[in-house]
Structure of Cytochrome P450:
Amino acid sequence: MINPSINYNLTSLSSSSSGDVAGYFISRRLFFLQDIQILELLLALVVFIAIHSLRQKKHCGLPVWPVLGMLPSLVSGLQCNMYEWISDVLCDQNGTFRFKGPWFSSLNCVVTADPRNLEHLLKTKFPNYPKGQYFRDTVGDLLGGGIFNADDEKWQRQRKTASIEFHSTKFRQLTTESLLELVHSRLLPVLENAVNNSISIDIQDILLRLTFDNVCMIAFGVDPGCLRPGLPDIPFARAFEDATEATVLRFVTPTCIWKVTRFLDLGSEKKLKRSIKDVDEFAEDVIRTRKKELSIQSEDDKKKQRLDLLTVFMGLRDENGKPFSDRFLRDICVNFILAGRDTSSVAMSWFFWLLDSHPAVEEKILAEICKIISEREDLDPKTPLVFRPEEMKKMDYLHAALSEALRLYPSVPVDHKEVAEDDIFPDGTVLKKGTKVIYAIYAMGRMEAVWGSDCREFKPERWLRIIDGRFMSESAYKFTAFNGGPRLCLGKDFAYYQMKFAVASILYRYHVKVVKDHPVVPKLALTMYMKHGLKVNLVKREESELQKYLNVRLQCSSKNGIH
Ligand code: HEM
């Protein structure tokens, strides 16, 4: 901007100093200053017009910059909470927008949170929306040909076999028994130790250890012991975590760059290579040992003893009638560990965080638990309380509260598909072959159009039938935390069972109080971890507190606690 006072002085000085050398120089200097100011003004104007004209190119409400596309908006979204940023844009754009990334990146995609589009891509036109080559390339080093990363027949074969296994009575028995053992002989003692020593704990870390031990039992039939006293550092668990973190980085790095870095064995690619090597060594060791064990067992023993996925797949043949390769067996197990490890534990962490600020919900959960156990005919107050499978089924309010936590904080916040042939979404979005489609599960929970004006509130009641208070499920295309259609989460029932069992066992014994001012933000990862974990203090429940809910008197053998 021109300063008007200088302009005024300029005119008066130049006119009053004609013939005066000093005045001449002064006036020249001031003219020079004026020239500079005009130049500055022109320059500012050019920059302003350039910026303005570039910014004028808006698409879906977001500025599109030359070369960079919408990247600057994404980067500013990343500074705060990326999932909130996506939610805001989607709410603004009625549920779908097209993201234009830099020309050199792989970020161009269509982002949607419209249930009609989700039903279309997950069910109606399922074959037209595979995981695709981009996803396979990006996660291939870690996941290989496992279920998460496979399409078509390769996926179908694994899905079918695993589905039969997951729904078999024996398998359910194995998983419930191993969970019971882990909760009662590892989780609760670790929590009790924290209470007795008055120490805060990171409950997300504890729950991750619980589900890691549990899923390794299911997948490999081995117990890594992450939740043993002292919470030891388990190299396999660490390698697994490092490998998933480094893999996620590939999604936000241009493909050509991470491929060159991988070739040169630098940075996160070096870390990825090393951690995958450690994961592979662990898997190879387990596979070798299992093969040896099976080779010296009779057929009858084999059937009786092991029900883990590794043993099941070892007994099968591929499409050529040959046993599966060790590499493929490794891929199957690694994929199941990824599927079952973080998802349930982060869901429980967000649940405990929400509960901390919703005491009325905690009261209702407690009332429900107590009502259920008071119906036991053989309730023995002297023995530690272990919830029974049939009791878990009756916990409708807890089921609703966990679903509500998952609606607001889905363990998989965004998911990905690729368009196989040109298509049009029900909302009219045109999709060219090869387009990447991101479905924003986190954003869906925040869309008024989907959940109503109270969508951001934590209200388990929205999941209950008014007439009898029983749990009421929702369409998988509106509540997509477990995916939907043919690729619906295979572990959904088990996950609910596991979460209800662990949460009920904890809440019955302790108040879980989040440490004051503990920062809670999601981490950018495949699964929605809390970036700083969840620091909590546990407070033992008094017997008198539960008395108001129980019809029967609980006599605790310990002084003031609940078994
Ligand atoms: C709260 C817990 C869980 C949540 C929110 C959850 C969510 C999901 C989601 C969103 C998918 C789709 C992923 C994709 O295709 O990109 C999925 C798939 C899958 N989940 Fe879960 N999951 C949970 C727990 C589990 C557990 C405990 C297991 C097994 C032990 C499991 C096994 C699987 C498998 C095998 C698939 C792949 C299905 C397929 O592609 O056909 N999940 N899950």
